[in-house]
Specification:
This protein is mainly α and 326 residues long. Helices cover 71% and strands 2% of the residues.
Amino acid sequence: MRSARGPLQLTSPPAGSSSEDGRALKDRFAKDQDDMTDLIQLLINGLAIGSVYALAAIGFVIVYSATGVVNFAAGQFVMFGTFAGVATLLNAQLPWPLGYGAALLAMALFGVLFFAVLYLPLRASPVVTIIIGTVAIGITMQNAALLAFGSWPFRLPSPLEGVNLTIAGATISAHAVAVVIVTALMVALLWLLFFRTSLGIGMRAVAQDIKAARLMGLKVNRLLALSWILAATLAGVAGLMLGPMWFADTSMGDPIALKAFAATIIGGFGSLPGAIVGGLFVGLSEVLGASYVSSAYKDLISFGIMILFLLVCPQGVFGERVQDRG
């Protein structure tokens, strides 16, 4: 029986379909390449912001480990570092090396002043009293900056202003790359200080047991003062690097303090590696969340992750699990 359909005939594809498929593939490849370029830019920017949070968190941890005090003025330290750069680079018009050096020297002296004015008079008081004192000093610092510089925001220039790098096809700000590199160098110098010098070993001894360190003949007050100097200097470095990325504003310290606190919780309270990892994690989650979710929820994402760590892993990534004896 013959088929009613007749013989099978091969039909050629419509003219131009192959070129349309090629164009579609090319457009899809270009879109994927653009997405990858955007992701690289976001990752570098997130690492740069996270590096600033990491330096603030490291200062946070250094003071806490040495004195047992949670310094809630850590964000104001960073703000002071930024405005120290405004005073030396914008107002005094000093050259870059002198301006940066003068700003960091001012921050180191401020660390000594903070230790002498706040910690020494209150060190025999309960820890809660000293913590409240740091909050009060932070508010005083913010208002002092407001009186000295006004409420108008400043933009701190960068030595790498206008310089861009190309990484895997993505155009990256050279300043953002420099922030990551400088933070890595600071971390390396801190490691050498704490593990390869007698001064750093003494600081670790004070952090571990201050009474035993005093019995061993260590100059405890000098080492405690050095911890505040380090915290203030690191905050100064963070502030100088943050100035070209943010507008210098007297209220900029509050969100930085909260992000540094979140970084220490996520990384492990009292852990220097935890402060570094936590700071980078907070910076990446903030930038990626703002880009792929919504900028309105970037803080919610960071603090939501912090709360999740408090519920599931309260000791943090690098923190030690502590159990009370029954």
